[in-house]
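Attaching the record inline, Q. Sequence:
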Amino acid sequence: MQSRSLPYVMALLAAAAVLAVVWVVDRLEQARFHEANRTSVIHRLSAIRARLEGALNAHLFLTRGLVGRVSTHPSIDEQEFQALAKEVLTDQSAIRSIELAKNTVATHLYLREGNEKARGPRLLDLPNQQLAFQRALDTRQTVVAGPVDLAQGRAAFVSRIPIYLTPPGGPPAGGPYWGLATILIDKDTLLKEAGLFDDSEGVQYALRGKDGLGAQGEVFFGDTALFELNPVALDVFIPNGSWQLAAIPVGGWAAVSPSFSLFRIGGALLAIIAAGLAFFVTLTRIRLREREQALRGSEKRYRILYEDNPAMYFTVDQEGTVLSVNWFGAAQLGYTVDELLGQSVLNIFHPDDRDAVLQQLNGCFENAEQLFRWEFRKVRKDGGVIWVREAARAIRAMDGKTLALIVCEDITELKRAEESLRQSHDELELRVEERTGLLRDSEAALRDSQKDLQDLAGKLLKAQEEERRRLAREL
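Structure, as predicted:
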C-alpha cells in the first residue's frame, strides 16, 4: 500500500516545490522589472541632465569674452558693445538680450527682435530679483535666477555676472567693482535644446528649483504632482545653485511586468509537468528496485563467473587506474586483488612497452565500442616477465563514465615457441649462408685452377713451336 501511494505523494511534493520556486522567482522578476524600469528612466534622465547643463553652460560661456572685454576696457562705447553682443548672439537663439549695468544702472543693451519691451529700470528695483542680484555681488560669481516672466509674454532665466576691473599689470578681475552683465536666456528654447519636450522615449519630466534653490525651489516645468509619484530625480548644477530634474514613464510606473500572466501560466504548467515527472520517476524507481532485487541472483552468478574464469579480466578508467580485476588475473601476476585496485595499469607492464600501451588505451577510449587488440609484456610481482595478448573495448557505464574492459591471455609459451622457431630459422639461414660461402670459394679456386692449366698449356704449345723451329733450322 505504501509503495502504491508513494508516486502520488511525490507528485504533490514536486508540484508544491515548483509553485514555491515560481512564487519566489515571480517576486524577483517583479523587483527586476521595476528596477529595470527605473534604470531605463535614469539613463534617459542622465542624458537630458547632461544636455541641459551643456546647453546652459554653452550660452554662458559665450558671454565670458564680453565680460573680459569690459573688465579691461571699462569705457566701452555703445558701438563696440553692439558689435560684440551681435557676434555673441550669432546662432544662439536661446539668448534674448545682453545688458551691461554700470553701478547697477543699465548703460548698454542689446535686444533680439521682439524684445524691445525688455528695457527697464535699475536692476535692484526689479520685483523678486533683489536676492539673486545681491547673491551675485556677495559671492562675486555668476548667478542664474528665474525663470521670470518677461514683458513680451515669455519666460526667461536671468544670468548675472559681476564685473570687476583688471588693473594694468594686475591679476584678472583683481580691481574694483564695475557693474553687472545680465543675460536673458529663453526658458522654452533652452529646455527644448535639452530634449525636455521630446516624449518619444516614453518619459515625462518636471523641473523645480526656481532661482537655483534646488529641491527647495518652485516647480517651473512639468506637472508639480510628478514629484509625489516616486520619480527618479537628479540634480542639475548651474552657476551658484542647482535645479532638480525628475522623471517617470508616461502614464506612471507599471504595477506588474508585462509577462506577469504568461509567467504565472507557465509556472502552473511547469508544476503540472513536474508532478507528472515525479509520479512516473517514482513509479519507475519502484519497479526498478523490484527488478534489481530480481537481478541479484544473476549478479551473484556473474561474479562467480567473473572471479573463477581462468582468464585475466581488468576494468580501467580513462586515467588508466585499475577499477576491478578478477582473482585469477591478479594471481597470474603474483598479486592479490587489493594490491592492484586503485593502481595504474601501466605499472604491471614492462617499462619499454608502457608508452605503446598508453597510446593503445587512448585510442580505445577515443573510439568507444570499437575492439582493440595488442600484445605486450607484463612484469610479475617477483620480476618475471610474461607475454599477454589483450582485447579491449571502451563502454559507457551506468554512472556516465567511460570504462575499458580488458581480457588478457597469457601467450608466454607461444612467444617462446615463436622465439625458438625464429632462432632455428636464423641458425638455418646462417648455415645456408656458410655453405653458400664455401661453394663460392670452391668455384673461385676451380676458376683459378682452370686459368693455371690454360696458362701451362699455352706455355707447352709455345715450347713445342720453338722446338719445331729449331729442328727445322738444323735440317
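DSSP finds ten helices and 14 strands in the chain. The first helix runs from residue 2 to 62.

More tomorrow.
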